[in-house]
Amino acid sequence: MDNDYEKTLASLSGQTLSRWLPIGYVRKILFLILLLIGFYGLFVLDNLLYLLIIFIALILFSPKIAGLVAFGLGRLLSKK
Asked: What letter does residue 22 receive in the DSSP assignment?
């Protein structure tokens, strides 16, 4: 029973972390709004601070990048 649970968990985590775009329409819309604001500020207003908005949008809303960041932080914190 425990082995089946681990296989199912591995399968689900692989499917979840394989997507670049967020799941759900509301998250996709928020993601696109933040990206548009970031690109507008970066290219039109010529301010590098808006580049931070782009990175925050990617980290918060992309399951793949969020999973990679969480995995990296977990490995880093577990070495203590």
From this structure: P
Asked if 59 contacts 66 with a C-beta cutoff of 8 angstroms, the reply is yes
Task: Identify whether the C-beta of residue 67 lies closer than 8 Å to the C-beta of residue 17.
Answer: yes
Q: Could you tell me which residues come within 8 angstroms of residue 12 by beta carbon, excluding any fewer than 6 positions away?
A: none
Cα separation of 51 and 35, whole Å?
9
Residue with tokens 């709004």: 33
pTM over 0.85: no
pLDDT at 17: 60
What would the two tokens of residue 75 be? 């490995």
Tokens of 17: 């972390």
Average pLDDT over residues 25-34: 83
